Amino acid sequence: MKKVAIVYHSGYGHTTKAAEAVQAGVAANGAAAELILIDAEGNITEAQWASLAAADAIVFGSPTYMGTVSWQFKKFADASSKPWYHQQWKNKIAAGFTNSATMNGDKLSTLQYLFTFSQQHSMIWVGTGLMPSNSKAAQRNDVNYVGSFSGLMTQSPSDSSPEEGPLPGDLETAKLFGQRIAEVAKKFS
């Protein structure tokens, strides 16, 4: 069974909802999925570092703050220099996701950061593989309404609780993204 680690930071709980939906998609495709929450100080445990080393795929997630990842995620990324030095994550599958309060919110900048981070680790990046919902008939709760190919983008209004956002269509997009990550990980046996 393939193992997927989902390592992410969530400032208010919305990014956690996206991570849980990605996890559900991974599990629906027959892979094991572990959530690794980067704490409020930007740290993970030694056991969680070991889980990343043992994973077949690593999915990175962060809210978009000021056009990039949160400082907590950046601290985690900087702390990954030891696995980087030993190329511990080389040829693992990588993917990324982000959430912000606006439809755009410069989320692409965050995904580009996560992509570059994965490439520093010599990983193999996977995008959503989903067509956008961009016709006149499209509704906000359609799959990939935000229209991202590079990675998962979800949106939660700034005054919403995690129970109110991301919306169901974004969470369904996250599940489908998780399924694709597990599918690609299986192909790299």
TrEMBL record:
TM ranges: none
Keyword Flavoprotein applies: yes
Q: Which Pfam families match?
A: FMN_red
What InterPro entries does the database record attribute to this sequence? Flavodoxin/NO_synth, Flavodoxin_CS, Flavoprotein-like_sf, FMN_Rdtase-like_dom
What cofactor requirement does the entry state? FMN
Cite the entry's keywords alphabetically.
Answer: Flavoprotein, FMN
**Domain annotation Flavodoxin-like: ranges:** 4-182
Q: Which residues form a coiled coil?
A: none
Recorded protein name is Flavoprotein WrbA
